[in-house]
Amino acid sequence: MTDQDQQPTVYPRDMIGYGRDVPHAQWPNRAKIAVQFVLNYEEGGENNPLHGDPTSETFLSELVTAQAYEQRHMTMESMYEYGSRAGVWRILREFESRGLPMTIFGVGMALQRYPELLDTFMKNGYEIANHGLRWIHYQNLPIATEKRHIDLGTHVIRDMTGGQWPLGWYTGRDSPNTRRLVVDQGSYEYDSDYYGDDLPFWMQVAKTDGSVVPHLVVPYSLDCNDMR
Fold it and tell me: How far is residue 135's CA from residue 46's CA, in Å, rounded to a whole number?
């Protein structure tokens, strides 16, 4: 047995959460539940040689055996374009007809390609949260690259919304560094890169400078998501 084996270590995952003592959330108007409707807008921010990426996108496709090509993948592109051309408007009509609120998790590059759509989101009073600069996997990207994308994505949203800082963050294809970098950024009130609870909760996050701060996590659900 090595010295390392003998040293007690702190397991970094929280497997307990609220556990047996689930708090009463005290939602407004005595509501029994609170639901956050979220629309992820990613079209035009995915992997594509047009965007300087080495290969085409393979993620979230109806092509079960989608291949990553070094050239444009025209079928894959058209599947993503359905979202911006038709799908988003179908969803908007349903929400508008019912007067329902919604949070937009918007990819910065995608919103830059369709500013008129962002105008519609804002006119409807929807929350514009940040879904990152790009819709790509961050798991193996250098920390400096992910940090730069977080900073750039934040400023893209702010500039396109007339100076409104986004308060919510959701990467979706995150890395072990994402939450720390988001908290380092300093302007976010919550993130949703977590699937392990039904209720919001506070997490103690160690920042890059060594300080530890409380950070709100609003869990995400894949029940109605195409990643399922």
Answer: 5
